[in-house]
Specification:
303 residues, cell membrane, 71% helix, mainly alpha, MetI-like fold
Amino acid sequence: MKKILFRWFDGDVGYSFRHSPMAIAAAVVAFVCIFCAVFAGWVAPHDPHDLATLELGDARLPPVWMEQGTSKYLLGTDEQGRDILSALMYGSRVSLVVGFVSVLLSMLIGVTLGLLAGFRGGWLDAFLMRLCDVVLSFPAILVALLIAGVGRALFPNAPNSVAFGVLILAITLTKWVDYARTVRGSTLVERNKEYVQAARVTGVSSLRIMRKHVLPNVLGPVFVIATVQVATAIITEATLSFLGVGVPPTSPSLGTLISNGNQFLFSGEWWGVVFPGVMLVLIALSVNLLGDWLRDALNPRLG
């Protein structure tokens, strides 16, 4: 895997990135967001999880440039007196973890099933593709909402780790189909090529052929899909959290921040909604732009 990535970025992909201002700008924005989320404990001016530092007297303060704003809270505070800027960094961490883990699991499931379906064919291929058709028949957000809601109903007093697990499972089960269908189509082409036939003649096992020969040649579209689906998964998590079936309310993800701020939007306290929304847009947009660049770099004929 590392050799493939290095070969890409040392060759045409790296050249395309260095000569694409849009890709560079998107990478910078994504890096800043991810850096602030990962190192929120050191970068954030306050810890929104530390109840001892919260001051109810500072609740619902506006941003620093508005009247009654203070430099202590650059983007204002919420109804509990939590610093919005710090909550954004910690909330982005939750959203990114859920997004990345769910995409990794979706990619693992989808690539595995797609390889098996395309390489084996027959009844297994037919069964897996009909399963994909069934999953695609339902809107992804409704399936995720159903799974997350059922999980909350079955485990109402579950710890946060179980709630996160149910949320990740809900997103994973709606995202693996894209990988399976894409890899299956690419595998159908690759399995009839001469290098695969030569490996079969020499007695190489089917599992080794799929892992060593076919898989590296079908990963290009997979990385493009994964890049785009990170943004989709983050938005799905924010949607579920906004609806109250995502991460626990005690864990300030971007969705829960928007949901909490929405309660005070019509009283003029717009910062509780706007800033988490802008953060969500920046993450999703930057990742989507990187996905578009990667697609064009791997297949210039589509550009």
